[in-house]
Every structure is written in structure tokens, then in C-alpha cells.
Amino acid sequence: MPGRERAGAIVLNKKNQILLVERIKNGAHYFVIPGGGVKPGETYIDAAVREVREETRIDVKAVREIYTLRPRDGPSDIRNNHHYIICEYISGEPRLDDASVERARMAEGKGNNEYFPQWMDTGRLPGTLVYPLEIRDWLIEDIPTGFRQTPREATIRL
Fold first, then answer.
1. Nearest to residue 139, comparing CAs of 121, 158, 157, 115?
2. 116 bridge partner residues
3. Distance in angstroms (rounded) separating the CA atoms of residues 143 and 68
4. How far are the Cα atoms of 30, 38, 155 from residue 134, in angstroms, in the given order?
5. Structural domains in the chain?
6. CA-based, 20 to 30 A from 115: which of 21, 58, 78, 94?
């Protein structure tokens, strides 16, 4: 069964902070880039903008794709790729929407599944567990250079 194409939004503000979602799930504590699955008929650029709005209530404008992760296992079908789009912050404060899927999961209380969208100082990235780790490591290298070495691609085990 083929996977699903995914899109993530890399959002930085003028305070040198990155938008992340803190996750606590089944005892694990980590951060993720806002994002999710691409809907039928939707581009991954549009999906990144939609997902960041749905997950964090932040309005952004897509600039360009900077990272692509391709799966090592399974068919090399585009639907398995994970695209990361650098986005320009427009407005909003990170929070869950009252009608969000994430808020509903938290209300169910199953599996200790919690979501906390927030800004994090980019200087904290090296000591923070951010998935996928490949994207975190590229961000640590690319933020100081203004993303001059992008786009980047990697084939990894997802």
C-alpha cells in the first residue's frame, strides 16, 4: 500500500524563533514541524499553508520548498515523499483551534496525546528532540546562512 504525500511548514519569525508543536504522546516528549497529509487535488505547497493554519492558528505565505525526504523502504512513489516549505510568517499566535483534531484527541485522553504549538528560539534546536532529526539538523546548519544551501534532499527510513 503506497504512503501518503506529506507537507510541513518551516516558519521563522523576526525574533529568531521557529514555529514547532510540542508533543507528549504515550510518555514520549518531543517537537515536530507543523504539517500533515496532502489532500487529493491539493499541492504540497497549499497543504503546508493549510496545515500550519489548522495546527497552530498562524497565517503564513509559502515561499519555496527547501527540503524533501524520500523513503528508503517501499515504492519510490511521490505519495511517500515529505516536503518542507519555508513560509513567511504573516500573523497569529500559536494555539490550538477549539475545533481542531488535536484538541479532540487531547479531550479523549487516550494515550496521553498532547499538542502545544509554540515559538522556540532557534538557538535551542541543537539540544531539542525535533522530528524528523534530519530536518532539525539541516535547520541548525541552514538558519544561520539564510538557507543558501537549499534545496536539500535525503533518502531515509521513515
1. 121
2. 22
3. 17
4. 14, 21, 10
5. 6-156 (3.90.79.10)
6. 78
Query: Would you state the cell numbers that stand for residue 15, as one nine-digit string?
Result: 525574533
Per-residue confidence (pLDDT) for residue 1, from 0 to 100: 37
Number of other residues whose CB lies within 10 A of the CB of residue 65: 18
Residue showing cell 530536518 = 135
C-alpha to C-alpha distance for 47 and 49, rounded to whole angstroms: 5
Distance CA 140, CA 126 (A): 7
Specify the pTM: 0.89
Length of the chain: 158
Q: Which of 54, 35, 46 is closest to 95 using CA atoms? A: 54
Cα 84 from chain centroid (whole Å):
7
Give the model confidence (pLDDT) of 62-83 as tens digits.
999 999 998 876 555 545 799 9
